[in-house]
């Protein structure tokens, strides 16, 4: 099986597992994730964090985003463009989120431009799994591959952190040439570090 087919099969498996979660499972995991994530020194010292609004069976991000905003952290949220690239807007709370394409919720405020992510101290990435080298399995749309390429092109070096459920840390994720490792993963039961961050 080639790499692309292996990724598709792994995505199907993890999406099926997530589809079996109840709303209570997702909310409970999201609360635990927020507690764990807030233990990360990178988040403790962050002025700006690029996050996302969880959807469907994804680990909930609401509690973490609210905790960051309560700390005075500027939280950026993605806005999906027609070509599947991402623009960004500021998180001004759940009452300022509007329905958008593909069932997403996006910030209502001004658009800050795709380059806004390069000013983040931490980028929280969605994913379906990550392996012990930090290679992330995304949903396959390529939006966050563009974000990671944009960060590299700008010479930006935020902490890259993927939010997952327990059981989504794997021995190996199929890897393609454009894939980039994340620095850490947060699950409801703990923090997992991969590539050391240069200082």
From TrEMBL:
NCBIfam families given in the database record: MTHFS_bact
Keyword line: ATP-binding, Ligase, Magnesium, Metal-binding, Nucleotide-binding
EC annotation from Swiss-Prot or TrEMBL: 6.3.3.2
Catalysed reactions, semicolon-separated: (6S)-5-formyl-5,6,7,8-tetrahydrofolate + ATP = (6R)-5,10-methenyltetrahydrofolate + ADP + phosphate
Claim: Transcription is one of the keywords in the record: no
Protein name: 5-formyltetrahydrofolate cyclo-ligase
Pfam name, any one: 5-FTHF_cyc-lig
InterPro entries xrefs: FTHF_cligase, FTHF_cligase-like_sf, NagB/RpiA_transferase-like
Keyword rRNA-binding: no
Cofactor: Mg(2+)
Enzyme type, top EC level: ligase
Lineage top rank: taxon: Bacteria
A molecular function GO annotation: 5-formyltetrahydrofolate cyclo-ligase activity
Family: Belongs to the 5-formyltetrahydrofolate cyclo-ligase family.
UniProt xrefs under Gene3D superfamilies: NagB/RpiA/CoA transferase-like (3.40.50.10420)
